[in-house]
Design goal:
393 residues; alpha+beta; 60s Ribosomal Protein L30, Chain: A; six-stranded mixed beta sheet; 21 strands
Length: 393
């Protein structure tokens, strides 16, 4: 049974927020926005990176998941905040070049990418976070819109988390999203494509009826890593149209959606107008209102093996939040916390401490807080990238 609601009650004083799967949806000044985030730790070309790759490719890994989630929803990327937990250097410039490559691969321009930096000078391992903001087009987002009788298909294949070559790309997902025959797309993560197929069905108020046999059924619960594959829905008669796109990834029907829809589709923007991103990273609405943002980064402060300043990471995170709240010239409504820490135990402690602090900032900790942790490659030094968003009339 569907447990999600897609109703908003617009608040005139600040944006109205709603959590939908891994997205934070935001209605403000008649527009509909989608926020997604991710973090990357110890993946790159620094001395103690656990997964060694060139810095430019590390930039692709950094932005891929959040960018793919926004594109899959039907939103158009309007801002990419790439936050480095340490000071700018030739290394960070090469990582940023990889971010730009991936953004351009889906039709975005380099002008939408805004880097943020910390002050630490000689990091041992990569620690980065990213926030991607997308704007819904006039017709709205393509989420919770699958139909009874739709085929559920995979595109791409689950892969070992350390094998990044050949994984599904954002450009391929963009090609799927631009195809009118495709109803809904959901990138797959660590729980496997069977889990995501059930999630997709549930958020449309339907049931997923898995086929008895199909070529990759034994891989249904294998981790898909950083979106190595995705699931999508399409009417059976339209699948040949999708195959004709020539997307160079394996497409496999794995089941159908059944039942009677128990969920309303998300309403489109009330009065669509393009957003404008300014040099300071603010998003300007045609009404004159703005979303302001500020980031705070920390590195080698915590309890990881090679940290230089030892303290509880939750204490450090709260300090950063207080700094942001004091400096942001706007009414805070959303905090995004990207951590180069495993979820247990430190990630959970940081998240819990921030939730307790958020109410004093006027932020609802249930809808106005999201973030990511790094369980695959946490690295020997703690990295935190906090980004606060505020509403300015």
């Amino acid at each position: 049974m569907c447990s999600h609601s897609v109703m908003f009650v617009e608040d005139q004083k600040k944006p109205d927020l709603y959590r939908f799967r891994d997205l934070t949806l935001c209605r403000a000044a008649g527009q509909l926005l989608a926020f997604a985030c991710d973090s990357t730790g110890a993946v790159g070309a620094l001395p103690e990176d656990d997964f060694a790759t060139d810095a430019r490719r590390a930039g692709v890994f950094l932005v891929k998941v959040a960018l793919m989630e926004v594109i899959a929803s039907g939103a158009v990327p309007v801002a990419v905040y790439a936050d480095f937990c340490y000071a700018p250097s030739p290394h960070t410039e090469r990582v940023l070049a990889g971010v730009l490559d991936e953004v351009r691969s889906v039709g975005g321009g380099g002008e939408i990418v805004r880097p943020g930096y910390g002050t630490y000078g000689a990091p041992l391992c990569t620690a980065t976070g990213v926030v991607v903001v997308g704007q819904a087009p006039p017709a709205g987002l393509q989420i919770a819109c699958s139909q009874p009788g739709d085929l559920v298909c995979t595109v791409g294949r689950p892969m070992d988390k350390r094998s990044h070559i050949g994984q599904l790309t954002c450009a391929a997902v963009k090609a799927l999203r631009d195809c009118a025959a495709v109803h809904e797309i959901l990138p797959c993560g660590s729980k496997g494509f069977r889990y995501e197929a059930n999630t997709l069905a549930d958020t449309s108020g339907l049931d997923f009826c898995e086929s008895e046999t199909y070529p990759i059924k034994e891989q249904a619960q294998i981790s898909c890593g950083a979106c190595a594959c995705a699931v999508f829905t399409v009417a059976p008669e339209d699948l040949p149209q999708v195959r004709a796109l020539g997307i160079p990834y394996f497409i496999c029907p794995i089941g159908r959606l059944t039942g009677t829809r128990r969920q309303e589709a998300l309403a489109p923007p009330a009065r669509w107008a393009p957003l404008r991103l300014t040099a300071d990273g603010s998003l300007h609405f045609c009404t004159g209102q703005r979303i302001r943002t500020a980031g705070a980064m920390s590195y080698a402060v915590g309890r990881r093996p090679r940290d230089e300043w030892i303290c509880a990471p939750e204490q450090r995170a709260v300090e950063l939040l207080k700094q942001l709240a004091a400096s942001l010239p706007a009414v805070p409504f959303l905090l995004i916390d990207d951590l180069n820490l495993p979820m247990r135990p430190d990630g959970e402690r940081v998240m819990a401490a921030l939730r307790q602090q958020l109410t004093s900032c006027g932020i609802d900790p249930e809808t106005g807080f999201t973030g990511s942790t790094e369980d695959n490659h946490p690295g020997p030094q703690t990295g935190m990238a906090l980004r606060l968003f505020g509403w300015r009339e």
